Amino acid sequence: MQPLGFENNEFPIHVLKLGKALYGLKQAPRAWYERLSNFLLENGFRRVKVDNTLFLQSKGEHLLIVQVYVNDIIFGATYNDLCDEFSKMMRSEFEMSMMDELNFFLGLQIKQTSTGAMIHQQKYIKELLKRFEMKLTKSIDTPISPSTRLVMDDRSPSVEEKFYRGMIGSLLYLIASRLDIVFSVGLCAHF
Questions:
Q1: 148-185 pLDDT, tens digit each
Q2: Cβ(95)–Cβ(112) under 8 Å?
Q3: Does residue 46 sit in helix, strand or coil?
Q4: What is the largest CA-CA distance in the chain?
Q5: Alpha-carbon gap, residue 21 to 97, rounded angstroms
Q6: pLDDT for 19
Q7: Who has greater pLDDT, 21 or 73?
Q8: DSSP symbols for 90-159
C-alpha cells in the first residue's frame, strides 16, 4: 500500500522505491556518528584503534573515557570535575538529556560504590533461564570438565536448530562477564 501523502493516482497499485527514507535520511546514524566523532576529536579526544566508538582524553594524570553506542553516550573519568566539564561541553554543542549514574547498559548491570564498580549480568541470566525454560535447573560450580569431549549422538532426539543457535548466541554474549563458562559455551558452539 502506498504511504499517505505519497499516493500515485496514475499507478495506484505500484510499489514505490524511495530515494530516501520518509522519516529522515537513510544514513542518519552514520552522519550523526561522524558529526559527534569529529566534535570529540576537535576537542582533544583520541579514538581508540580497537574500538571506533571509544574515545579517550588525558588531562595530566587523569583520564576521561567516552563510549558511543548509536545515540547513547556513556562517560566516566578518574576525576569527577572532568565529567562535569564534558557534560557542559556536550550541552554547548548538542541538545541532550543527562541521566543519573550508569546502572544498566546493553545487558550489563553496573553497581558503583566508593571503592569501584562491579559489572554483572544477573538480570540477563534470569531472562535467559526463563526464555529457554531452564529456571528449575540445578546449578553447579564447574560447568564442564576441560577434558570432556563432545561427539555427535545420532540416537538422541533431534534439537530444534533455531532454538539451539539462539541459546548458544545468548550464551556467547554472556561470557563477557562470565569467564567460567567460556570453555563450555565454546565446546557447545561446535554443534
A1: 777 777 788 888 889 999 999 999 988 877 888 888 88
A2: no
A3: strand
A4: 71
A5: 26
A6: 63
A7: 73
A8: HHHHS-----SS--EETTEEEEEETTEEEEE-HHHHHHHHHHTT-TTPPP-SSSS-TT------TTSPP-
Q: Would you kindly state where each structural domain of the chain is located, as residue ranges?
A: 1-95, 121-189
Question: For 20-45, how does the pLDDT look when each residue is reduced to its tens digit (9 = 90+)?
Answer: 555 555 567 778 888 999 999 999 99
Burial annotation 113-151 (CB, 10 A radius, 16+ → b, else e) = eeeeeeeebeebbeebeeeeeeeeeeeeeebeeeeeeee
Give the distance, in angstroms, between the CA of residue 85 and the centroid of all CA atoms in the same chain.
26
- pTM comes to 0.58
What residues does 8 pair with on adjacent strands?
Answer: none
Q: Among all chains, which residue has been given the C-alpha cell 553506542?
A: 69
The grid coordinates of residue 57 equal 582524553
Cβ pair 76, 83 in contact under 8 A: yes
Query: In terms of Cα–Cα distance, which of 97, 35, 48 is closest to 72?
Result: 97
Q: Residue 63 in 3-state DSSP?
A: strand
116: left (phi over 0), alpha (psi -120 to 50) or beta: left
Query: What are the Cα distances from residue 25, in Å, to 19, 38, 71, 111, 139?
Result: 9, 19, 15, 38, 49
Q: What is the pLDDT of residue 45?
A: 96
| Contact (CB, 8 A) for 96 and 88 | no
